[in-house]
Design goal:
Layout lengths: L17 H11 L4 E5 L5 H7 L2 H8 L3 E5 L4 H12 L13
Parallel strand pairs: 1-2
Length: about 100
């Protein structure tokens, strides 16, 4: 109900390295844009874990849109709309 007229939403499941699979899916769909959310990890976490957004930005041959995580209250609103409930597990988010 939230999609604009003519938009198509397709859900798939893939196995493999995240960046490789996203780029492959983009090629198969002939995508003009790949959108990804970030988690706001710090430098050390990115160093050891890596960053999907960084990998997409470095390796993609099409435009990439990276969005930061929303504030806790906005995230809860989206979860309520999608699932009917929301859970704020980080104590720092409780005030929101």
């Amino acid at each position: 109900p939230e999609l604009p007229a003519g938009a198509i939403l397709e859900e798939t499941s893939r196995a493999g390295l995240v960046v490789d699979e996203l780029l492959t899916a983009g090629r198969l769909l002939d995508a003009d844009l790949i959108a990804a959310g970030t988690q706001g990890r710090g430098f050390l976490e990115r160093l050891f874990i890596g960053s999907t957004a960084t990998g997409l930005l470095r390796r993609s041959t099409v435009s990439v849109l990276c969005a930061p995580p929303p504030p806790a209250v906005d995230r809860a609103w989206v979860e309520m709309r999608l699932r009917g409930d929301a859970r704020l597990e980080q104590s720092t988010d409780w005030a929101a």
